[in-house]
Design a protein that fits this description.
This protein has 275 residues and is an alpha+beta fold. Helix content is 29%, strand content 23%.
Length: 275
């Protein structure tokens, strides 16, 4: 496992640092990527932990020219404001409504748009809007290598929590499939190791979500109207009970998708299938 005080050379253009914020939700910690040799783009500088910020600056060696954030959750973007202030370089990203889970220190100098392109001496990075985990989420494609930096859109070894209202299951599945429109050869997740390929991983994740959705429908068919607190026990019976409070969020996202599609409805917190 990569240590928090080392930089791993993922490719000649890419170095990865891991923030010292391991947890049940972040795995070994948040991955921070440094792209380029002469001018360096930092993707997801991570939490505002002094030793991690110092590590980014040390590895960047005075060459950091861009700071890009996939989204503004507290494990991905708070270090950006510190780096931008110290180095006088732009913060680039998108913002969303405050849902009590956002990094409010992130005030981008440049707001991301779909297919925005940023360049350095030996790199071209394309922004791909991938709402779902949260509505201001972007992935970044390093075009020279086909590597996509996926933030929390795709994680290695676990599924992504979808937290409504900013998170949206329908948008998430559509955003996964959007990646197939690009020439992606590998996925560099916000947590965990690089995932080779793209199509197989995307298809596996979409299949998993649709299987979970089918389980929601089957439980409502079998047991009748139910609350989320009741449904989570049977729909997520393969997930440790300690994780059910997080699973309830993704379960709500599944139910809201079914509601938008006219397949389910709720009344005072009780969910049932549409007639």
């Amino acid at each position: 496992m990569q240590g928090h005080d080392e930089a791993v050379q993922v490719s000649p253009r890419i170095r990865r640092l891991v923030a010292p914020n391991p947890s049940v939700m972040t795995g070994p910690g948040t991955n921070t990527y440094l792209i380029g040799t002469d001018d360096v783009a930092v993707i997801d500088p991570g939490p505002a932990i002094d030793e991690h910020i110092e590590h980014i600056m040390r590895v960047g060696d005075g060459r950091i020219s861009h700071i890009l954030c996939t989204h503004t959750h507290p494990d991905h973007s708070p270090a950006a404001a510190h780096l931008a202030s110290e180095l006088n370089v732009p913060m680039i990203g998108a913002v969303t409504a405050d849902d009590q889970h956002q990094d409010l220190t992130f005030k981008p100098d440049m707001h991301l748009t779909q297919d925005a392109v940023f360049t350095g001496n030996d790199w071209t990075i394309r922004a791909i809007h991938t709402p779902g985990h949260v509505d201001n989420h972007y992935c970044f494609l390093l075009e020279e290598e086909g590597m996509v930096f996926a933030g929390d859109h795709i994680m290695n070894g676990s599924t992504v929590v979808i937290v409504p209202p900013g998170g949206d299951m329908k948008a998430y599945i559509e955003s996964l499939q959007r990646l197939l429109s690009y020439d992606v050869t590998a996925i560099a997740p916000g947590h965990g190791e690089v995932i080779p390929g793209c199509r197989d991983e995307v298809e596996k994740l979409v299949r998993h979500r649709l299987m979970r959705e089918a389980k929601v429908v089957a439980n409502l068919e079998r047991g009748g109207p139910a609350s989320i607190e009741t449904l989570v026990v049977s729909v997520y019976d393969d997930v440790p009970e300690a994780m059910h409070r997080w699973a309830q969020l993704s379960l709500l996202a599944h139910l809201l998708k079914l509601e938008v599609e006219g397949r389910a409805h709720q009344d005072a917190g009780i969910w049932s299938l549409a007639a």
